[in-house]
Amino acid sequence: MTARGPGLLYVVATPIGNLEDITLRALRVLGECDGVIAEDTRRTRQLLTAHGLGRPLHSLPAHDEQRRVPALLDRLLAGEVLALCSDAGTPVVSDPGAALVRGARDAGIAVVPIPGASALTAALSGSGLRGDRVCFLGFLPRSPGKLRRTVEAGLAFDGTLVFYESTLRLARTLARITPVCGDRPVVVARELTKVHETFHTGTAATLADAFAAHPPRGECTVLIGAS
Fold first, then answer.
1. Among residues 89, 71, 226, which one has the least CA distance to residue 158?
2. Are residues 49 and 146 both part of a single domain?
3. Boundary residue ending a domain (65, 80, 114)
4. Which family, according to UniProt (predicted)?
5. SS3 of 221, please?
6. Residue 84 pairs with which residues in a beta bridge?
7. DSSP character for 169?
8. What is the domain extent for residue 158?
9. What is the 3 state secondary structure string of 139-167?
10. What is the dihedral of CA 121, 127, 132, 137, to 10 degrees?
11. CB 1 within 8 A of CB 33
12. 161 conformational bin, left if phi > 0, alpha if psi -120 to 50, beta if neither
């Protein structure tokens, strides 16, 4: 894969659990590019190794994204073809990468998305809730007041509300938003595409009680249906 003039930045979606959930196009790009930009090089190296790919890795962690972007832009401007990946799912969607993509576009470098796995769309497709109108909040604020106000504002949207949450905070978060959710249907999708994938349905109150009694493990996507 050879660039003419300014390089090329691919934004590559990677599996959210099951390593088979990667597209043929993504495998081709990852195998032919000059280097792979990874949120965590250890995680991305596991993916590349599983598919027999060996490419140079460049780190772009969330906490140091702004500082590392200029060096990566220099590579792109020198003509390199790079592929941006996050630990799992689609880069930029609640993951690092927006600063690099914005910088590349501002510099006249072509940016090409390679679509694929996303916890957001996987959870929505299996939830049974409406998918024609969706409000995505990413990860909620930690502050109880901000958390509740964020969800309350989202519920004013006529559609399905979706956010990501740590299993360590899941029961507490559901309990805190119960007053504003009322009897709206809630679905918690856990460990999507993995061996222990489960969908839990109920209300914020019933699920808060259930998860407080039996704390879950893994990664969760929470969906709240329209009233």
1. 226
2. no
3. 114
4. Belongs to the methyltransferase superfamily. RsmI family.
5. strand
6. 11, 37
7. T
8. 119-224
9. ECCCCHHHHHHHHHHHHCCCCEEEEEEEC
10. -60
11. yes
12. beta
pLDDT digits (tens, 9 = 90+) for 213-226: 999 998 999 999 99
Residue 208 lies in a domain: yes
In angstroms, the first-to-last Cα distance of the chain is 50
pTM (2 decimals)?
0.91
Residues near 27 by Cβ (< 8 Å), separated by ≥ 6? 51, 53
Write out the two tokens for 49.
């190794």
- 3-state DSSP call for residue 190? strand
- Which residues share a beta bridge with 86? none
Q: Cβ(159)–Cβ(184) under 8 Å?
A: no
Q: Are 84 and 72 in contact (CB under 8 A)?
A: no
Give the per-residue pLDDT at 5.
65
DSSP-derived letter for residue 89 is B
**Domain annotation covers residue 186:** yes
